Structure formats: C-alpha cells, structure tokens
Amino acid sequence: MSGPLAGLRVLEFSHTIMGPCAGLVLADLGAEVIKVEPAPGGDHTRHLPGFAAGCFATFNRNKRSLAIDLKQPEGRAALHPLVAASDLVLENDGPGTMERLGCGGPALQALNPRLVHLALKGFLAGPYEHRPALDEVVQFQAGLASMTGPPGQPLRAGAWGVYEPFDTAEGSQVFVGVTSDAQWIRFCEAFGLAELAGDERLRTNARRAGARPWLIPRLRAVLAGLPRDSVVARCEAARISWAPVGQPADLFEDAHLLASGGLLDTAISALGGGAGPLAPLPALPVELGAGRARPGLTRQPPRLGEHNAEVLAEAGLLPAEIAALAARGVLAGEPSPANGPATAEDMPCLTKEIAAGG
C-alpha cells in the first residue's frame, strides 16, 4: 500500500520526539521522508541508554537518513537541490537555530517558493517565543505537576463521581469509569447495588462527586470481594468503561493489538537503525480505505547516514562529489570517508553552488 501521501517529499530537520513524531506520521502515510541529521553524531536519541534505548527506533521508521554538517558551506550547498525538489520542510530546532545554519524560512523560500515550512516550537509569537521548551516545561508552567500531590496522598477528586482503579479479589486492579447518570444506573444493576441506584444523594454526577468520601470506600469493599473476571464481565454487560491496570510490557501480548496489526516488529540497535533485535513497537492508529488497512513498516529505522549516497545522487551530485564530502567530514556514517584530500575539482556542482552564495 503506497498511502495517501505518496509523492510528497519531506525534509525532516528534527530530533528527540516532537519533530520525529510528526515525520513518522507523514512517513507512515506514504510520504518520502528524508531525516536530515547533524554530522557527526546525528539525532541524540540514537545514543540514549537503558529504558530509553528504543526511542529512536520508535519515531524514525520508514525514513531515510542524510547525516550532513550544515555548519560547513559544502553541506549547505549540497542541501539546496534537495530543498528545491521538496514539498515540506519540518523542523523542531530551538529558536534561531535554523536561521544560524542558513536554513531559516526566508532562505528556504528563496530556494523553493512553493515549499511549506513547518516549524514546531514550544511557544508561538509572544514574550516566551525565544525560550526552548520540553514536555516538563509545559507540565510545570500549566500547573499539571501540582495536581499529582505528594507520595501516599490521594489524587484530587476529578469531575466524575466514579472514576477509579479498584482492587479485585486476586489483588489485581481494574479501572472503572462511570461518566453519566444512565451508566450509574447500569453499574448499580450489574453489581447488585439497588439501594445505591435509588439513593437521592447519588442521583446526579455532581452529587456522586460530592459523595466520593463515603461512596468510593463502599464501592471498593464491593469490588474487592469479586474476582477480576467477574468485575470485567459485569462492566462489559453494563457497557461501562473499564481497563486492566497493567504494565507497558503487557501490551506486547494484548489480544486487540495483536489481532489488529497494532504492533510492528522494529529493529533496535545500539545507535538506532540497522540490524538488531526486533521489538514490537506501536503502529500508527489509523485505518485506510474500504479494507481498513493499517500503515505498516516499509523501512526499518535508518543507520546514521545510511542513505547519504542515494539521496545526494538523486539531488544531482556526482559520485566523486559525494565521496569528497565524506572525505572532508561534511557527511557522517555512509559512505565512509575516502582516502586523500578532496579538491574543488572533485566537486564541480557544489563549487558552483557555493560560489552562488551557498
């Protein structure tokens, strides 16, 4: 399946999660995504240790890698024909970074007036626009971090009366969410709680939320006496939202994900990409066409600079020019640096581009 975005070429100047995630969606939907990584190290998530070692593989499948040093004029010159032949530039660098590299919006538009420039930043125009941002910056500034409370203390009551994880007879937990008055009646019927269904103090969600201090302990006592399978079956029969309280690793064996093609066997290596052990990572949660096909895995996550030669050749560079860029350290990864110094004669196309202002 080619995907609805087949024929769209994207240059992705991105790192970490936000930019690569956007590029992943485009790539999964069929766009040709070229991940432009800084030489020599590439996207720093390639080097994350421990539990974060799968970060690069999670967000960079179905892409090609071009590892190039844009701080060097030869690197910027090599990029120009790629920009001219692309439809979209995607980046999530810090404020001013692309401009310092000569790749800001006006410079890119001069090379390709029809180019769409998608800049993902922490803040839009305003007093904070110069600030770099992380997920935690948003959490703390928006007040989300203050809502969790100290260890051992209960979370603050939310908007719903019954919206809790409950212990079951075996000690496992099941989350149950009752979000309407009709659901409350069905919940009470399913669990044999006729007296609560008729209690005027619990008639509306607002009343149930106010009654949480005595209502939740009452419900905990009821559900704790039932096997997990019984709690689940009653919630299913009553059409009540529920979920097992599990661990991330449980998803690898989740019946729905396995049956729906929700996991893709993705290679994870020491530096991301290339050969390595396969891990089931989440697919894009969309279905396409009448056949409800899921976007799949067409390329394993790339090795650093794995596609240098083919991408630059498609841009019109000669093999000798590509080898010369590698020899000068403008490229990282593949191809490996050639022996001996490179000269201007080795790079006729790039020399002309640099002379024109690259």
From TrEMBL:
<dbReference type="GO" id="GO:0008410">
    <property type="term" value="F:CoA-transferase activity"/>
</dbReference>
<dbReference type="InterPro" id="IPR050483">
    <property type="entry name" value="CoA-transferase_III_domain"/>
</dbReference>
<dbReference type="Pfam" id="PF02515">
    <property type="entry name" value="CoA_transf_3"/>
</dbReference>
<dbReference type="InterPro" id="IPR023606">
    <property type="entry name" value="CoA-Trfase_III_dom_1_sf"/>
</dbReference>
<dbReference type="InterPro" id="IPR003673">
    <property type="entry name" value="CoA-Trfase_fam_III"/>
</dbReference>
<dbReference type="InterPro" id="IPR044855">
    <property type="entry name" value="CoA-Trfase_III_dom3_sf"/>
</dbReference>
<protein>
    <recommendedName>
        <fullName>Carnitine dehydratase</fullName>
    </recommendedName>
</protein>
<keyword id="KW-0808">Transferase</keyword>
